Amino acid sequence: MEAIVQEVVKPEDLKKFEQRFNEQCLRGQPSATAQFEYAWCLVRSQSPSDLRKGTLLLQELFHKTADETAKRDYLFYLAVGHTRLKEYEKALKYAKAIQQVEPGNHQAREMTAYIEKKMKKEGLIGMAIVGGAAAVAFGALAGLGVALAKK
Amino acid sequence: MAAGPYNYSYIFKYIIIGDMGVGKSCLLHQFTEKKFMADCPHTIGVEFGTRIIEVAGQKIKLQIWDTAGQERFRAVTRSYYRGAAGALMVYDITTFIVRSTYNHLSSWLTDARNLTNPNTVIFLIGNKSDLEAQRDVTYEEAKQFADENGLMFLECSAKTGENVEEAFLDTAKKIYQNIQDGSLDLNAAESGVQHKPTTPRNTLSNDQPQSKDGCAC
């Protein structure tokens, strides 16, 4: 799942699908396909504002469609976008929502496990950085005790 | 197992393409996990899998991008074709939708040819060979299509595992052969192959950033 979540869009692809989407916007209502293609590129960008824009476009698509498969696809990339924004609570909510639509979906299951792992890992590091004696105790648990004691 | 910086000497990038429901993800799963995934839902976007194989005594890591067959994903998944050393083009031997199998295969093949480099090895896979009673595409006609277009070809079953290893391995052997005879230039952009020399120098350069990271706290 790491490879899927951390993969970065090629700038020329982002540009291409952005142009297609913008052209359709100028002519009126963009198609769901053009909006999804652009959003899928945005949620693989390294820029937080692109990630944000991608999640907003996906949310809009999600609310507009009645197609369950399409909803599932939008939820998955909402989870990707929010994971990359480090908004794990939201990401987890979307990943779990897919499992409600499709209980056996292994991509959703792997995504959920990946986000939970990230939360656990970054939560521990966060606590260690926040500092004080408590951090030393937690650090020791995380195997950081030796490094901290030397300082 | 941490003997060196890499326990393989090459990375080959593969893509798996073809219509929705032909069993692309099941083939990948059978190859990487040696298991059949029953009731597999339609893939969302792309999936990724890896496995280390051995060709002519060389360890090779296969990085496989499995693309969704749904039309919604078609335009964006095309960007995954670039830099593929191998392309597995899959069809279902039980669905011959009034000659459309040929049309579809031609369209997938055109995409693969246009978006990869001339040395990309394209392998045609007729999946679901376990469903002999429901066969709708004969071996001969598919073989003819493969021959006419210069593709490698096998019928496989993601369910029983029949010929699945062979398809992935034969593709790697052909890529490796192209490297050996010089027809595939490793320095060319988007060759789809990375060489990973296992020298001690790499161990050092690999360790340094790690130890720096470790001290950052």
From TrEMBL, chain A:
Biological processes per GO annotation: autophagy of mitochondrion; mitochondrial fission; mitochondrial fragmentation involved in apoptotic process; peroxisome fission
Question: For this UniProt entry, which segments traverse the membrane?
Answer: 124-149
Q: Which UniProt keywords are listed?
A: Apoptosis, Membrane, Mitochondrion, Mitochondrion outer membrane, Peroxisome, Transmembrane, Transmembrane helix
Q: What is its main location?
A: mitochondrion
Instruction: Provide the membrane topology annotation.
Output: Single-pass membrane protein
**Classification via InterPro entries:** Fis1, Fis1_cytosol, Fis1_TPR_C, Fis1_TPR_N, TPR-like_helical_dom_sf
Q: Quote the CDD domains the UniProt record gives.
A: Fis1
Q: Which GO terms describe its cellular component?
A: mitochondrial outer membrane; peroxisomal membrane
Where is this protein found?
Mitochondrion outer membrane; Peroxisome membrane
Please indicate if the UniProt record lists Cytoplasm as a keyword.
no
Q: Which family does it belong to?
A: Belongs to the FIS1 family.
Q: Let me see what the UniProt entry remarks about domains.
A: The C-terminus is required for mitochondrial localization, while the N-terminus is necessary for mitochondrial fission.
What this chain does, per the entry, is described as: Involved in the fragmentation of the mitochondrial network and its perinuclear clustering.
What name does this protein carry?
Answer: Mitochondrial fission 1 protein
UniProtKB/TrEMBL annotation, chain B:
Entry superkingdom: Eukaryota
Q: Which reaction does it catalyse?
A: GTP + H2O = GDP + phosphate + H(+)
Q: Where is the composition biased (Polar residues)?
A: 196-211
Give a GO molecular function annotation for the protein. GTP binding
* Swiss-Prot/TrEMBL keywords: Acetylation, Cytoplasmic vesicle, Endosome, Golgi apparatus, GTP-binding, Hydrolase, Lipoprotein, Membrane, Methylation, Nucleotide-binding, Prenylation, Protein transport, Transport
Q: Where does the record say this protein resides?
A: Cytoplasmic vesicle; Early endosome membrane; Golgi apparatus, trans-Golgi network membrane; Recycling endosome
Enzyme Commission number(s): 3.6.5.2
Q: How does it sit in the membrane?
A: Lipid-anchor
Give the GO cellular component terms, alphabetically: cytosol; early endosome membrane; phagocytic vesicle; recycling endosome; trans-Golgi network
Q: Where is this region: Disordered?
A: 191-217
Q: Which GO terms describe its biological process?
A: defense response to bacterium; endocytic recycling; Golgi to endosome transport; phagosome maturation; protein transport
Which NCBIfam families would you find in this protein's record? Answer: small_GTP (TIGR00231)
Name of the protein: Ras-related protein Rab-14
